[in-house]
Amino acid sequence: MQSKKTDILIIGSGLAGASAAIAAAESGKNIILITKTKTLKSGNTPYAQGGIVYKGITDSPKKLKSDIIHAGHNDSWDLAVNKLCNDGPKLVKEILINKLNIDFTQTKNKTSYELTSEASHSEQRILYSKDKTGDSIQTKILNYLENLENLEILTDYTAVDLLTLSHHSTNTKDIYKKPACFGAMVLNNLNGEVTPIYAKRTILSTGGIGQLYLHTTNSLESHGDGIAMAWRAGARCFNLHYIQFHPTALYHGTERFLISEAIRGEGGILIDNSGTPFMDKIHPKGSLAPRDIVARGIHRTMLKNNHPCVYLDITHKEQKWIKNRFPNIYTHCIEKNIDITKEPIPVVPAAHYSCGGIGVNLNGHTSLKRLYAIGEVSCTGVHGANRLASTSLLECLVWGYNAGKDATIEQEGDDYFPTIQPWVIENDVIDPALIAQDWLSIKHTMWNYVGLVRTRQRLLRAQKILRNLQNDIEGFYQSTKLNPEIISLRNGIQTANAIVSSAIEAQHSKGTHYIDESSEYK
After folding, report:
1. DSSP E strand stretches across 98-193
2. Which one of 150, 223, 412, 456 has the largest count of C-beta atoms within 10 Å of its C-beta?
3. Is 291 a catalytic residue?
4. Cα(123)–Cα(247) distance, rounded to whole angstroms?
5. To the nearest 10°, the Cα dihedral for 74, 78, 81, 86?
6. pTM reported for the whole predicted model
């Protein structure tokens, strides 16, 4: 069995993983970065339309902290929020603006950057690049990565499992050592070879879980891979039940294209099918209420009116301004025969962001030695029960950069790489129809029972369905030839079960974890 060895292994190439690679590369350490897609640009970062939190003209870390904690229903970790608020704007300036020269939208006189606002922000503090901020950032940062001499990039490689002392070492006495990760087993998608990559430090930056749901704004590869691998390895995960549903995804056929919250930040109004605004009756901030409240407000309005969607109206703005400010959204909607300058946009909620994940400290350490988690796969404690808009990219930057730096610091035990058992290759081929049907079962179960509004009955039903399904899928995995599809399915069902367990165990109905306590469901 061939193997590779490196100082630092990074799994995932979104903003978090890329930021970690940049920080680690400055130390001269050898780094391997893998991504399961055919190209380096993958994950949810390129889909981030709205922007990244920076600093407003009359802004302060104290104001930003207050907004984050309020949006998160007072469930955030103070130390993590402090770190984001104090370090975030500095790193945006140093890395994104000065080092990478990201094409953020500037004022007309080109002397400063335009700043916008989104739901629950008390200041205009968000930097943006039209309505494709994430893509603009990711394009520049990946170009920078490709020129780093001490970074080896492997596309079309899928992580199978983390290598840990307790699960993979042939030395039976290693079970007595503190749990630690020493790399990952990976699949070469092109030739089917399974290879261990040994690493002194491993950084998970595998992104989100949106594809576990029937409707999502996430990329096609967002199956919860990192959470599943960490869960199997024994790393602590928490707040998994806090799944944020974006209020405004385009309602058109089966597609759920993200309609940026920046449209509401720029004055867009949510209306029902009769053209009546409805959010003002639900929350003092109306259409700019926290995302969880807006999403449930839309959900209730759809049920009340027996209509499949609501509408987001920005037509009161000048046509030229709309086309210039939101060119990507305008073009996409025109392709669907929707002219957002003349008619409201049909929208519905969709699974968008995992506020929980693998528990980490202020430098991205997990509960396993030598293992880090950064970006959406992690739970830093910043978001609490509901994420404040445009903080996700900032969190990726702050924890990615700090984890990359920290991973270069040598610690006792980093050089220990135990002997592992050779990989057993199975030859049975799984029927793709089974994989397709299993995914439908996962997506429908999560959407109907573990979605925007939950009840204990629904959660218990979901747990029963998904546990039985996991037994079947694990049997497929153990007996069939390995490919990316069966790996993703195995990870998806594991993460779905973890989310349901977290939701059942949660003691409070709060934020994005909303339990309907109507007497009829008790």
Report:
1. 126-127, 151-155, 157-164, 181-188
2. 223
3. yes
4. 21
5. 140
6. 0.94
User: Which residues lie below 8 Å from residue 400, measured CB to CB, with a gap of 6+?
Assistant: 15, 16, 17, 18, 19, 20, 23, 205, 364, 374, 375
Tokens encoding 507: 């003691």
How far is Cα 55 from Cα 130, in angstroms, rounded to an integer? 18
DSSP letters for 330-358: HHHHHHTT--TTTSPEEEEEEEEEES-EE
SS3 category, 250: strand
Task: Please give the span between the terminal C-alpha atoms of the chain, in angstroms, as a whole number.
Answer: 55
What would the two tokens of residue 348 be? 């519905």
Looking from the CA of 205 toward its CB, the CA atoms found within 13 Å total 37
Residues 256-303 have pLDDT tens digits of 899 998 999 999 999 999 999 999 999 999 999 988 999 999 999 998
488 Cα distance to chain centroid: 16
Q: Where are the alpha helices (DSSP H) in 234-326?
A: 262-265, 291-305, 319-325
Instruction: Identify the active-site residue in 264, 291, 370, 454.
Output: 291
Length of the chain in terms of residues written = 522
Distance in angstroms (rounded) separating the CA atoms of residues 115 and 104: 10
Calculate helix-pair angle for 432-449, 484-505, nearest 10 degrees: 20
As given in the structure block, the two tokens for residue 218 are 């996430």
CA-based Rg of the chain, rounded to a whole angstrom?
22
Cα torsion through 11, 12, 13, 17, rounded to 10 = -70
C-beta separation of 63 from 123 below 8 A: yes
Distances (CA, A) of 206 to 89, 138, 297, 308, 392: 24, 15, 31, 33, 14
